[in-house]
Amino acid sequence: MQTLHIVCFSPVSPTCLNMPGRSLSLGFPRTARRRRSVRSDPQAEPPPSGADMALTRLEKVQVWLLKAATGVLFALFRLLSPGGGAPAGRRKLPPVSSPLLLMSATRLANKIRRKEVSSVEVVRAYIHRIQEVNPFLNAVTKDRFDAALQEAKQVDVLIEEETGGEAVLEDRLPLLGVPLSVKESFALQGMPFTCGVVSRKGVVATVDAPPVALLKRAGAIPMGVTNTSELCMWCESNNHLHGITNNPYDFDRIPGGSSGGEGSILGGAGAVIGVGSDIGGSIRMPCFFNGIFGHKTTPGVVSIENQFPVCSGRQAEFCSSGPMCRYAEDLLPMLRIMAGPNAGMLSLNTKVDLKKLRFFTIPHDGGSPMTSPVSKELMAVQRKVAQRLEADLGVTVQEVHFPEFRYGFQIWDTYMGLPDKEGKLPTPFVELMGEPGKSTWPFWELLKRMVGKSDHTVAAIGLALLEKAHVTEPSAFIIQQKERLQKNMDELLGTDGVFLYPSHPRVAPKHHHPLFRPADCAYTGIINMLGLPVTQCPLGLGEEGLPLGVQVGAGKLQDHLTLEVALYLEKTFGGWRDPGAN
Question: Mapping DSSP to helix (H, G, I), strand (E, B) and coil, where does residue 92 land?
Fold first, then answer.
């Protein structure tokens, strides 16, 4: 049996839509040559996107089938699922009132070490903010405020008793006394470890996931754990154990997934730094929708152990853990800590001169029939980034087009279901739904859901049903497209190339609307399949008051390049914006 995956934004999901059936590869060959063109007039209209390009008859049939299937799922969602949104009344988060909430983790750590502010004061400020905003966001599913305050008191005593001076503390404990939020799919000792699965209620982590342990060892103080989608398999953080999470800029919008709780509490200023994982966009989509920074590392650098679900098949090749934060200057020190002994794989201590880099912009995927066309405001802001780079740095930003990007969703879907070196396929999704017991029967769950008795979301049930329905073999054509794109991108980027690529075709969708276009995750998922590092960068707010942004990618192990560009973009475009002030 081969495996089918439909759509997932899971960080460490074996499920990530891997379904025992076969790989849903909707690929179809079309002759196309790679095209590169130097940007000309920045005001010129961009090349036509998906909706404007002619489709073959086979493509039209497959698009119709996809739309029909997703339409049915969306109708079920609307019929059987409770709506999202915050409690009736207030429709906007209160603005940030404490100046401590407007400082980066790096700056807070400096102030704590210098005794300009105590760790207790900082932790109390964040406790107050979480209590203020979480009723509207439902982002933090379990706090550890009492323990955090005790740890903060210990930090303040340690600083008072330290005889080696500030430099010693900075070297040993660079994040000493700084609050930290943790995605609930990461093991945090003594905290729930459920990944939104009702049958895992009561499961408590007995150890820390390695990235969490390293951050704690660096002095960070965990405040609690945050919500995810059920089994980390969807771009909306919703499950029947913890409920649905809202976007801090608009409560009727999604915060993304599967690290949506992290994105929401960070965007709402209830946290300053956090951790996420990404196998199809689970760091980048929440960061984009919530107006914060996030970094998907080169795979194999930051540990993905002690997370749930566990990667299976070849998924570990595409999954990354990484930092999420409101301020760009926190990305590099967090990554250095989270990478632990593997930090030496990256050139994080190398000074980057942006003027010596080669820049490229890829405005869209070339017109995939599976994805929505990129919105005009997102294409415009990406052009603006290119213009500013050229004007400020004196570089040339070259526009490039690779036709293989058109098959981004099919590539992601196919590779998520490939077996490992021993020939073992990814864990079936129905098995994960029943964890830690027997596999789930999706048809039975659908019947139960119709009378409000199922423990699973309609999205999860629908995906389990699709798992049973598809039996196509992986497409040799799609494998070829991926290999060609990998070769082209590796050659293009080398060790000094940086590219811009849309984070998503549109700004944060309304609750449940991703079912209309489930393949839009291809804009993030394809980067996972290429194994490239990429930083999600906010670029201000758009017409609807929602965050805009762009992905900044580079060659393998060149993470330091994208982190430096993130610092530039924060300075140029303003970075994170207080959702209570807009």
Answer: coil
